[in-house]
């Protein structure tokens, strides 16, 4: 009787741990997808920042506010 009860408890424990692993794996997959989306967004924002800086420099050069060799960080 005790042996059978112990066997059932061990089976429940293995199932529980397997479910926990599956859940953690799915969380990992979802977080990796989120990270990829965030990295893509960062890249697009960096491109936009560069474009806007260039537009600002050109505008300031055209208005004579900025000299040709001046750089904006």
TrEMBL record:
Compartments, as annotated in UniProt: Nucleus
Pfam family for this entry, one: bZIP_1
One Gene Ontology cellular component annotation held by this UniProt entry: nucleus
Presence of keyword Nucleus: yes
Residue span, BZIP domain: 1-59
InterPro entries xrefs: bZIP (IPR004827), bZIP_sf (IPR046347)
GO MF term set: DNA-binding transcription activator activity, RNA polymerase II-specific; RNA polymerase II transcription regulatory region sequence-specific DNA binding
Transmembrane segments: none
Alphabetic keyword roster: DNA-binding, Nucleus, Transcription, Transcription regulation
PANTHER family cross-referenced by the UniProt entry: ACTIVATING TRANSCRIPTION FACTOR ATF 4/5, CRYPTOCEPHAL, ISOFORM A
Family, as annotated: Belongs to the bZIP family.
Protein's UniProt name: Cyclic AMP-dependent transcription factor ATF-4-like
Organism the protein comes from: Brachionus plicatilis (Marine rotifer)
């Amino acid at each position: 009787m005790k042996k059978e009860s112990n066997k059932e408890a061990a089976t429940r424990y293995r199932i529980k741990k397997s479910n926990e692993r599956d859940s953690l794996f799915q969380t990992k997959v979802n977080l990796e997808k989120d990270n990829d989306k965030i990295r893509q967004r960062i890249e697009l924002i960096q491109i936009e920042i560069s474009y806007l800086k260039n537009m600002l420099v050109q505008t300031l050069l055209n208005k004579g506010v900025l000299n040709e060799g001046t750089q904006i960080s």
